[in-house]
Amino acid sequence: MKDRGSTSPRIANISAVTLPDTAAVLNVDEYANSQLPLGRTGFPKQGGQSLSYWLQQVRCDALLNHRSTEDLPKEVDTVIIGSGITGTLVTKQHLETWPERNVVVLEAREFCSGATGRNAGHCKPDQWRHFAKFEQAYGQEQAIKILKNENDTWKALVAYVQINQVDCDLWVGDTLDVPLDEEVAKIAKEMFQRYQEAGGKTDHIKVTQDPMEAAKISRIKNAKACYAWSASTLQPWKLTAHIMRANLKRGVNLQTSTVARSVSSGQNRGRKWIVSTDRGDIACDTVVHATNAYSAAIEPLLRGVITPKPHMCNKVIPPRSLSGSKAIQNSYGVLLPDGGLFSINPRCTSDGAVMFGGSNPGQKQLDDWVTRHPERCIDDGFSRVENVTECVREFVENELQGWTDAELGPGEGFDYSWSGIIGLSADGVPFVGELPGKPGQWICAGHHGHGMARIFTAAPGLVKLMNSEPWAATGLPDVYQMTPGRLERLRVAEQPSKVAIV
Ligand SMILES: Cc1cc2nc3c(=O)[nH]c(=O)nc-3n(C[C@H](O)[C@H](O)[C@H](O)COP(=O)(O)OP(=O)(O)OC[C@H]3O[C@@H](n4cnc5c(N)ncnc54)[C@H](O)[C@@H]3O)c2cc1C
């Protein structure tokens, strides 16, 4: 990897829009997912992980290394593997559905220290941007359903936080999608129109096609258009911790620093399955794989179907010229040529530190490097990857009004960056349902870098299926369902399809 000062990628050097007559330009996955080798996987990295801003804020919270009992129970009804937002919400729904059943949650490291504890803190429902790509992959009806589900998920998350008064820095406001290039703006406009013509709901989206007006609204100098709709930002660890604390009060057994290594037949113990860990075995009837990026490490059927990929997030303290009453007031998706994206979370309701995630142009070089070093595909110890940080720096200095001439004193500007592992789904959408051929083993994973806009409905949906309710009861898009046919099709595919990542 390059150090700062060596040839870093420049936004301006990224070749122009690749496929101007298709939806590809806004498909970040196409940008970030090229040449992805299939089949790589691994268990969560032990030791040397970077600390996200969210994890840094909670170092004295005893939930991080909580173990409800000193030893693992030998037998329970259900083992849930993973304590991210998926495992935590599945646990909640499980406890509400079957209060009498006992549940163990296994977490390989600290509580919620996977992608949920490391993301960019954006819950941004896609409301138009990937419509054409989803339509191409799954047909119009499913494409509309996916976007509707994202909005339902956002509403469910906000309602939970507000009703339960969760202290997690929730912000609700206008998120802005801003194309930074005329070609991108042209294709965005076509895509938006295509979605409208298909009957998609757009009356909640404020659209400005006038570049001067867009620059004024967004405060981005070269904005070519601006699309605004409601979304949220939040502290994801604190939200997940709030839900897990309620689960603990209801009797769940949480076991951190406990890696589940395999799941095998439990017939000789009078149960369906044995979950083997480094600290002993647990016999159970039900297993939930809430392991997202790491799913294939335990379940070989998922190799090439869910693939881990490191992603970066930068924390930046804005200069005084963009602080106080002049602080950034919106979250963003800045749409770059060739499908790159800056996802920006300015933490407007709390400390104003600005998080830059997404698939920025420098991410591609990290991807190439990981492709050459597949053993590092689950490495969330990356920090200060200058190719990525440099692109953010160039963007804020050149584009954000008020930043260009800012004189930065100590404590302002680029603080640091961390990494997390996203779980790419081979067809771009999550897997929700029973693992084919493994009755009693369930999965909700493969959130494709966009889980905050999916999991609040996908996780409770999974528990409905576990309760023998039909797929329709989940309200989820049909294409999220784990079926033998889907799994088989993806296992023989030579390249993953290219659908959305945000
Ligand atoms: C840098 C970055 C930025 C992102 N930004 C956003 C964003 O702004 N908006 C958005 O919507 N999404 C974003 N995402 C994606 C989002 O964070 C994920 O989709 C979501 O958090 C997935 O939640 P999860 O609970 O399924 O997985 P995770 O949070 O990864 O939880 C899985 C857990 O399982 C544990 N585990 C795995 N294997 C085992 C095992 N064998 N034994 C025991 N435990 C195990 C892991 O340690 C982990 O804690 C981002 C991701 C990253 C990495």
Automatic annotation (TrEMBL):
Stretch forming the signal peptide: none
Any one Gene Ontology cellular component term annotated for this protein: cytoplasm
Origin superkingdom: Eukaryota
InterPro entries from the UniProt entry: FAD-dep_OxRdtase, FAD/NAD-bd_sf
Chain ranges of the FAD dependent oxidoreductase domain: 77-453
PANTHER family: FAD DEPENDENT OXIDOREDUCTASE DOMAIN-CONTAINING PROTEIN, SARCOSINE DEHYDROGENASE-RELATED
Record protein name field: DAO-domain-containing protein
Originating organism: Melanomma pulvis-pyrius CBS 109.77
